[in-house]
Structures are given as structure tokens and as C-alpha cells.
Design goal:
The protein is of the alpha/beta class and about 210 residues long. The chain has five helices and eight strands; from the N terminus they run E-E-E-H-E-H-E-H-E-E-H-E-H. The protein starts with a strand and ends with a helix.
Length: about 210
């Protein structure tokens, strides 16, 4: 993605996990580590997805080191698709190996938001989470875990108005009982075609906020 992108591998529960680490400018100490999960692997989702790359760019711009990784059976990552269970185990393995302490942020797009929510449930409250970003949360297809009340001010939920993969109504049904705000991108599709700069700016604004 940029000159500061490093290709890594780690030994996960099902074998090798392929990871990309995007760092801020050389000489800049990262303010923390953000781990980002990609969309459904059985429908072409990878860590090189444009939305995932946009999230990584936003975190890097705000001084974070951004980690993207391929789910089981994608790219050089070993194992087979496990409907989110094993993927959450792999997410935890990435956190524990590359971000065992210090400031941590979690982000996910589509199926990745579901996996991220399961990872959050496993980490909280033992591990402090600085920022959360849900994009195109797959609430109509999976049981996306609720966000702890204490983390609401640190959470950004973004959804396209015209998302034809996950209807906006499904995300509102997930968010409503939590009284969790949802940022709606007018005219936005699931993959935010033509609106990735806007998506990035919304994430940067969230990451730059004091909460």
C-alpha cells in the first residue's frame, strides 16, 4: 500500500496467517495498533479489499500502525473457512502477537465487522479498546455482538444508505436497542463506490476526536 508496508506471517490456530502492517511515516512512533478485518472470504473478500485499504490509510494518517490479515483459506493464510468462529480466533492471535499491550483499535468491514465484534467480546473488559470502527456491519446475515456501553463514544458505525448487501434497516435494528448512533452515507452502496474519500474522512474525523 505504501513504502512503509511490511508483509508478516504468524502461526495461528489453524496454521500460517498472512498479515500486512502499514506504518506511519518513518521515524514516527505509532500511537497504537489497529487490527482490521476484511469482508466474506467466500465472496472474494481479502485484506486487499478497497474498503479495508481505505480503513488502513485512515488509521495510518492518524498515526496508528494498521494490521490487515487474510482469513483462513485466503491468500497465503492456511486453514478453511469457519463461519466466523475460527476467524475470530485468528483475529485474537493477531492481536496477541502484534499488539499484546498498549493502545488498541479494532475495525471491520461487512463479514469482518461480525468477526471483529466477536473478538471485541472476547477481549473486553480485560483489554482496553481505544477506537472501534464498523463499516457495512453484516447485521442481516450474522449475529453481530453488541458494543459495550462504555465504548459507545469510541465507536463509529458507518453504513451506506443504498447498501444492497446489508440493508440499512438491519443495521438500525441492531443499533437501536443499544442506542448506538449510525452514520449514514447518502446514496452509499455496500462497497462505497465513488465514496471512498468520504469514508476515509469520516474515519479520520472519528480517530481525531478526543473520546
Amino acid at each position: 500500500m505504501n513504502s512503509q508496508t511490511e508483509r508478516l506471517q504468524l502461526a495461528g490456530p489453524a496454521g500460517r496467517i498472512e498479515v500486512l502492517r502499514d506504518a506511519p511515516a518513518e521515524g514516527v512512533k505509532p500511537r497504537g495498533v489497529a487490527v482490521i478485518a476484511h469482508p466474506h472470504p467466500l465472496f472474494g473478500g481479502t485484506m486487499d479489499n478497497k474498503v479495508v485499504q481505505t480503513l488502513a490509510r485512515a488509521f495510518v494518517q492518524c498515526g496508528w500502525a494498521a494490521l490487515r490479515f487474510n482469513f483462513r483459506g485466503v491468500g497465503a493464510t492456511e486453514g478453511v473457512h469457519d463461519e466466523g468462529r475460527g476467524e475470530a480466533e485468528d483475529f485474537l492471535a493477531v492481536v496477541r502477537q502484534y499488539a499484546p499491550d498498549g493502545p488498541l483499535a479494532l475495525a471491520g468491514f461487512s463479514f469482518g465487522s461480525f468477526v471483529m465484534s466477536q473478538t471485541l467480546a472476547a477481549l473486553w473488559p480485560a483489554r482496553q479498546i481505544e477506537k472501534l470502527v464498523f463499516v457495512g456491519a453484516a447485521a442481516s446475515r450474522f449475529q453481530v455482538a453488541q458494543v459495550p456501553q462504555e465504548l459507545h463514544e469510541r465507536t463509529l458505525v458507518i453504513h451506506g444508505e443504498h447498501d444492497d448487501t446489508v440493508p440499512l434497516a438491519a443495521v438500525m435494528d441492531w443499533a437501536r436497542p443499544q442506542v448506538l448512533p449510525v452514520t449514514v452515507v447518502p446514496g452509499g452502496s455496500h462497497f462505497f463506490h465513488g465514496q471512498l474519500p468520504l469514508l476515509k474522512s469520516l474515519v479520520v474525523r472519528h480517530l481525531s476526536s478526543a473520546s
